[in-house]
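Q&A log
Question type: sequence-to-structure
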Amino acid sequence: MDSIPLNPQTPPTRDRLVLVTGVEHPEGACAARTLGAHGFDVVAHSFTPEAAEQIAQDIVGVGGRATAAVADLTIHGEVDRLFTGIEDTRGRVDTVIHAAWIPGPESTGTSLQSIHPHDWDRFLHAHLRMLFTTVRRAMQSMNDPDRAGSVVTVVGVDRAAGETRDSTLARQVIDGAIEAFTAAAADDVSARTVQVNTIRLVDELPSPELMDEHITPDFERALVLLADPAHHSWSGKVLSAPAPATRFAPALKPPPIPAHPPFGVTAVTVVSESTTPQKVELTEEEIFAGHLGGKLSVELTAPLDTQRDLSIAYTPGVAQVSRAIHADETLADRYTWTSRLVVVVSDGSAVLGLGDIGPRASLPVMEGKSALFKNFAGLNSIPLVLGTKDPDEIVETLIRLRPSFGAVNLEDISAPRCFEIEKRVIEALDCPVMHDDQHGTAIVVLAASRVRSRCRTATSTICGWSSPVPAPPASPARTSCSPRVSPT
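Response status: OK
Response body:
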């Protein structure tokens, strides 16, 4: 077992700029304060401005140098904006201490059987995307053959899980993925000027038989060592460091879900094929965390990793496709996404259960409908909420936007305007138009009526329409369908 002697008083390379992510959490706050005290120029990042500003003020208050920065690291554009802002105002980033993580339903301490698959997917996707985009952008900033960079990820005990400090299943999986990513990133060709390592926080040191473990005296000394490549030549290492609870007494509250009214607990009845209806309680945290940053994103269908890829997808290759479509506009259905793009259109005037809440407040609902199109029908879909209730303006807007989509889904527009808008849009556009509150309701009612009628008679007569269907065989499973009821 390697025990690493460190000198915590060793000053960093002159003017070394370090970005510490997640200072709203105890690990991040401790990392920022420690490096600030050892002479590093610190950029304290948080998802909330209050946390970032407090840590920056703490460092400056004791004679250090620090700046606050706010960004949602789960969004690629926000990560790039963060680094670009630092580079434009402070210069290249020399070191990144990545301690950010997002509390979710899993981090409150649930078992494997209690974690919903949707929560699991969202939790893992958010953290792995945040890790990937942050480290990737950090390596771009550190791409200097004359000055080595350093990326240090922090994993370990979930300090927000309660006084027991037990790490939850989801957090353990994320920590394992981060450690594996560290080793892979250290071997990547783009990391030739960057050292990538991990500090694993533990309550107890590893047992003696784990000879490949590196042990450090404490978290702070490990940070000072790894933050400056001038002090070492390691990359791809995982250092275990004991982290006494007293060192991590939280000075800040974890970042709250964005401000919202105190709606409390929502009860939802869930019905599945294999179970009886069950009432499930959803907390505010779960609901708002599920909508954080929206529910939709745009994904590429072809890579853009090389100059050749860019030349095909954009200039000069794209010009050939545009010329072909100019000569024959029907080719747009084949060479663009319009044939599989549905726009969900609403003015927010009749949102189910909420009424006239306006376009902005209706956007989460329309995002949800677009998500249903993508998940259950494989169709790309985008919400289009309009800041007008005038039928003429709504129809005219869709006419002008027609080249950009392949179908329209009218949603939550109040009556009687919705019927007029539907009729006029169908007449004006040469594409499928669905009025969800009318056509969707009719389809569901018709389907339910047909299924019910099949249980009653060999002939289904619904709303004046008659269709012979095979009579179902006698079966105990059909006993709930009463044969004594004559067809309507």
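Response note: The two ends are 82 Å apart (CA to CA).
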